[in-house]
Amino acid sequence: SVLLYQKPNRDICQSGTSLKIQCVADSQVVSMFWYQQFQEQSLMLMATANEGSEATYESGFTKDKFPISRPNLTFSTLTVNNARPGDSSIYFCSSSRENTLYFGAGTRLSVL
Amino acid sequence: GEQVEQLPSILRVQEGSSASINCTYENSASNYFPWYKQEPGENPKLIIDIRSNMERKQTQGLIVLLDKKAKRFSLHITDTQPGDSAMYFCAASGTGGYKVVFGSGTRLLVSP
To answer: In terms of DSSP bridges, do strands A107-111 and A10-13 run parallel, antiparallel, or are they unpaired?
Structure first.
């Protein structure tokens, strides 16, 4: 399995500000992903974090709004730029090992 | 890309009875179908999965069925307990757990 440590667990920020979420894996992993989940809804894949190169974004998510870094095989950050109340949700980092997807504990973001 | 439909959105059952959740997928290349349980305030946790070379898998009161021709798979929880109350998500992906796409979720409520 893979253990993923995410921080912060939760945050409150003002509209227009930026927030950075960090994710650390307990071992090197090839694939890291970021998911967004609104309250009581499904998990939406935002992007695949690629080591040493730009992230691959899914439809509806852009690098300007959600820049992602992946400097090595154990670490990734997701930034929420120009946060809006509509960005209030839970953000999960995840990683795949042996065809199984594991999740970090999530970051609950509230934008005022 | 892949799309996964999940029904029902809410499922109420009596303790001791069975609960069934159904999902369909579109991409015939999908070959891995995990099921996740998410409790309030927690991250999703894998409870059972099935690969395309199988039609049925059972573990600890959970049964997963896969019908590749119909592009349909289902989760059956036997002898439900109040502790089974949670959100359940089906998902589908291709090889390596890459780009796992989730269904919309089912809230299971087990009453004593």
So the answer is: parallel
